[in-house]
Every structure is written in C-alpha cells, then in structure tokens.
Amino acid sequence: MDLDHIQVQPRLTLFSGRGSDKHSFGKGVADLLCGVRQSGSLNAAAKQIMMSYSKAWRIVNEAEEAMGCKLIDRDGARGSALTAEGARLLDAYLALDEFLSKAAQAKFEELMR
C-alpha cells in the first residue's frame, strides 16, 4: 500500500505559564489575528473564517487575558489593528508553526521509509 499521500499536521499552542491551560494562543487566535492584520477589522476576520463576531471577541479577550497583554487595538467603527505584542506573538506563532510542520513531515517521511 502506498502511503506517500499522508501528511503530518502538528498543532501548536502557546501557553502563558500562569497555571491555566484553559485559555491559550492557538490556531483560532492566529487565524483571527491574521485576518485583522489583512483587513483591519475583527468583524471581517471572523466572517472570513465563518465565525460569529461575538465568538471572535470572546476568543481574543480570553487570549489577551491568558497572554497578559492586548493583542488588538480596537478603534470602534474604524476597525482594529494588531498591537506590537499581538504582532510579535502572531509572527512567532506563524514561524514556529511552519518550522514544526516541516520538521514533523520530514521526520514522518523518514520513519515511513
């Protein structure tokens, strides 16, 4: 049986180290922050990934609480923008996610030989 079509997809989650793993920074938060970066709007970011605006707010608020910093600056009807901390965390998350995905896929292929 040919297994060359199988790919590995690791899940990266950043935890604050504050003793609670309930709220964290993972794919959902990263997707929302990428959308805010691209569109300048949390509402537009939520719609892009078919998430309700209220759920997007809740996820971002929980992540901000867990990380101990604001991730998004909100400017009412004018939209939203990433804070410096939000941009740094998002960029680190994206870089780590790419690194882990490539490393995991390479190791999987090595193990499957």
Radius of gyration: 16 Å
Poorly predicted runs are: none
What's the level 1 CATH class of the domain at 27-100?
A: Mainly Alpha
Query: Number of helix segments?
Result: 4
Encode the helix/strand succession as letters.
HHHEEH
Largest sheet: 2 strands, antiparallel
CATH architecture of the domain at 27-100: Orthogonal Bundle
> In percent, how much strand structure appears in the residues?
5-15%
User: What distance lies between the first and last C-alpha atoms, to the nearest angstrom?
Assistant: 13 Å
Judging from the principal axes of the Cα atoms, what is the shape? elongated
What is the fold-level CATH name, i.e. the topology of the domain at 27-100?
A: Arc Repressor Mutant, subunit A
Q: Look at the structure and name the CATH superfamily of the domain at 27-100.
A: Winged helix-like DNA-binding domain superfamily/Winged helix DNA-binding domain
Number of strands: 2
Report the helical percentage: 55-70%
Label the structural class.
Answer: mainly alpha
Spatial order of strands in the largest sheet:
1-2
Mean pLDDT: 91
